[in-house]
Structure formats: C-alpha cells, structure tokens
Amino acid sequence: MSSLNLNEDQQDCLQEIINVAMGQASDQLARYLDTFVYLKVPNIEQVSAQSLSMTLNPDEQAVAVVSQGFFGFEGIRGEALLMYQPKDSDRLADLLGYEPEEQSVEEQIIDLSSILTTTFLNVFATQINNQMSYSAPRLLSSSKTTISEHIEQQAYNWDLALKVKISYQVTDYSFNCDMILLIPESAIINIKTVIDRILEEY
Amino acid sequence: MALHNIGATISDKLNTGVLIVDLEFNIVEWNRFLQVHANKTPDEVIGQSNFAVFPELPKKWFSRKLSSVVQLRTQNFCSWEQRHHLFELPHTRQITTDSHFMAQNCTFLPIESEDGELTHICILIEDATDVCHYQSKLGKALEELALSNRIDGLTQIFNRKHWEECLAKEFSRARRYSHGIALIMFDLDHFKLLNDNHGHQCGDAVLIEVAKKVKSLLRICDLFGRYGGEEFAVILPETDLSGAKDVASRIRQSIDEIVIKFQDENIRISASVGVAMITENDKHYEDLIHNSDVALYRAKDAGRNIVCVANESEDCFL
Question: Domain B3-140: which topology?
C-alpha cells in the first residue's frame, strides 16, 4: 500500500500540473460557454473502495452521476465521475446554448459532463506529453437519491484509487458541479512514473 | 497492397459508419457502411452539404454540437439512450425487432492537419439497435415486475404491502401539513359461509366484483387495497369526516346492491364498514388502522351491513 502513496514531491508536482491544466481548461470553457467558469483548488487523496462513498459528501442529493472512462499512453487511465445536484440542472440548456426543447435534461447533463471532462483532461494530457481517448459518457443513475446510494449500488474489483476532486462553478448561471477523477490502483504506479520523470527534468 | 491503402480498406470493412465533413459541414468522405445503409451514390453525397444529404438531422442542435468539437478541439458523443438516432438509416434486424431506424451511438472527432490546424470533423456512427432492443425489453419487464409487486393478483387492486406503504406516506404527509385523512375498512359479511356453500370459485367471483364496484366509486387520489382475505381498505387523503361518511355509506350501499350470477344462482352479499379520521392522538398510521378496525367490529356487533365511525360511540348508520 505504501508504494502506492504519492510522496510529498510527487503530490506537489501532480497538484501543480493539475493547477495549470485547470487554468487553461477554465479559459477554454469560458470562451466556449461565453461566461466565467471557476474551478476550485483540487483536492487529491488516496481512497479505498470502502471509503469512496464516504468521501463524496454522502448526504447530498444527486440528481445525476455521469461516468466517462479515459485512457492514454503509458498506462494512464481512469474514470471521471461528474456529480450534479437537483438545483444545478435548471439552466443547463441556457448555459450550453441549446433551446430547452432541443435537448432533454439528461442529454444536457451528459453533454456538459463530456465537455468538462474532455476539456480538462486534454489539457492535462498535454502537460504530461500524453494524449487521451475517451469512452462515451454514461448516465449511471438519475433518480433523486443521495450520492452515496448511487455509488454503493456499484460493485468494485479494486481496493485503492487516487481521487482528484475538482469543483466547477458558473456563477452567472448559479451552476455548480463536482468532477471526480478516480485513477485505479493499477494505473497509480504509471502516473507516479510519469511524475518522477517530470520531477527529474526540473 | 500499398500500406497507405490498408487504412481505407479497413474503413470500408468496418461495421461502423464513418463520415468526414469540413468545417462548413460539407461531406468530404464516407465509408462503405454508410454508403450501403444510406443507399446513395458518391455523386449525390461527396461535396454536398451534410444537411442536404441528411435532411433529417436537427440542424441547430447538430451545428451547436459540432461547434463544441471545433472550439474545444475535443470529441463529443451522442447516445441512442438520449437520442435514438441522428441519421435515418435502416438496420440489420428489420425482421426480428420493431425498431424502424437504426439506433445509433455517434462520436464526433476533431481531425487536425499535420501542422496542428483543425480541418475536419469525423463522425462515427455505430449501430446500437440490438442493445436498444434488449434494453427496452428489460425496461418493460422491470416495469411489469414493479407493477405485479404492487397489485393483488385476484382483485387487481393494491396488495396489502403496497397499500400499507401508501398509508404510511399519506399519514405522515397529513400529520406534517395538518391535513385531514380518513380510513375506511370494510369486511364482507358471512364470507366463510359463502365459500362453504358455493365453493371458493364463487367467493373469488364475489371478491373481484366487489373490488371492481368499489373502485368505480372512488376518486383518483384515493388508495384502495385488499387488506386481507375478505377485508378491504380505502385511504381518503384530504378528506373530512362528513366526506368520509358519505363514501363509506355509498360503499356499503353499492355492495348491498351487487347480485352475482353463479351457476344459475343469484348470490347477494353485504359488508360491514368502519370509518376513522386522523386525530391528534394518532402518532402512527397503525393507530388509524386500529381505530377503523374497532369501528368495523362495532358494525359487525351491531348486526352487520352497517357503517360505524370510530370515537363516535352511538354513530352507526346505513
């Protein structure tokens, strides 16, 4: 387990790469959505399968959870979860530039998820000289249950994951959502190799 | 074969549609899958506007979708689960599914030239008809399962379990907002005797008829269930005592009027009815059941085929 933990230098380095990627992603999103997009300082931590649902604000109601897989060279892979709360979805069509009757709420949520995930991860991949591919985004569940119920419905075959949580805020549309990147155990060692290489180059 | 041709050959062997458009949405290239399914010649397609060749595309939506690919230089997706299809194409299970058009998963990819300039958009169209077909069958099965979990098989009204869940919900809502809620419970008189004399098939026919008749008297918001063998219960949300008494009286009367023809015999039946209103003392929904049950047994004691109201010791009526 200890070999999977990021040391302080590795953690700082990853944090820095993410910060830069967030800056560029928020700039691109702002231009595309024509409004300011704020990304809050990310939170990076190691989570176990048992504790995952506990770390995701377990009591909050989620109107939807969207999952999208990502995979790049050098064994960098993982799953992005986008979490929305009921109050977040009111003005999505407006934000995305669609007429409300053109898209169902589900489609808006999936569309936005894909845009947020791929925009951020593309920039992130460029930072580490990589290139990402994505699976199609999928709505895991859209009933009004708490987030932890959504997550507990899933069965896992992993023990540990690296979790990066980034919160998005679009104040003009009073819209918030959380993007949670989960990098499974088998890929953590690969991301550590990449981070070590970057640290050496400095 | 020259190596650079292999890509094109494989593209033509794929069971996925490949459509490449320029930034004005004019079609630059397509593969065999699309050509065959769209049943058009290259002359009609190459160089033409995407919207002219496929007029079924939602133009505004499509343009906005592709603009995200161009501006953010990232891929975008469209799933059959939210939008059954974009392109009106036939599919390969015309005989064994009821789907008219091919259900599609579409992917929109930015294509950059060697100097990093975005020049084209590639649209991949995957046939998801099979998945869509089985998914909707599964959905239907789950719906039926959920329904049969709520319904009493014989009488087709709510079963005890679901009815009690409804009562728990309605009760706590009524308490929270200080609204009135009434409960009517009724039991068919001498039902055991009817079964003994005429057989259980006759008893079943009576239960079905009673459920049907009573259901026709109720409002849409009333919740009607089979509580036990020959005992039924009706939840009346947002109802005051006089309204509840009125419904109870009509239930008793209409059951009294039922005549069932069974093996050339005219079978008649009656019911004893108990009514209870929610009171300040009722903390749990079980209290309401208890009170109407007590009223129901007073009706039985008073000679049956009568309505009694809980907590009104002398108030029994027809």
Answer: Beta-Lactamase (3.30.450)
